[in-house]
Amino acid sequence: MQPSELVMNPKQVFLSVLVFGVAGLLLFMYLQVCIEEQHPGRVEKRREQRATSGWGPVNYLQSIPRIKPQVPHAQ
């Protein structure tokens, strides 16, 4: 067997990464559903705590007024 036969070409690498990525995502979603079915009340409690804690969503795109340094003008 030649060393060049052991190396995967870019198309095979892309397809294998894509397949394993999709499989991993599906496994993660399946396990998340299984865990939520075993513990049904926890997610709702966390959502209620966030809603009543006073910490709201932050809009990072909104401009906030900045403090401008006051430089004395020399005359």
* Helix content range: 55-70%
Rg, Cα atoms, Å: 27 Å
Mean pLDDT: 78
Order of helices and strands: HHH
Task: State the major sheet.
Answer: none
Distance between the termini: 85 Å
> How large is the count of helical segments?
3
Number of strands: 0
β-strand amount:
under 5%
Return the structural class.
mainly alpha
Unreliable stretches covering 5 or more consecutive residues: none
> Shape from CA axes?
flat
Give your account of this protein's structure.
The chain crosses the membrane at residues 12-31. This is Carbohydrate sulfotransferase 9. By secondary structure, the chain is mainly α. Helix content is 59%, strand content 0%. The chain has helices at 3-6, 10-38, 42-52.
Sequence-ordered SSE layout with sheet pairings:
Blueprint: H1 3-6, H2 10-38, H3 42-52
Keywords:
mainly alpha; transmembrane; 75 residues; Carbohydrate sulfotransferase 9; transmembrane helix; membrane
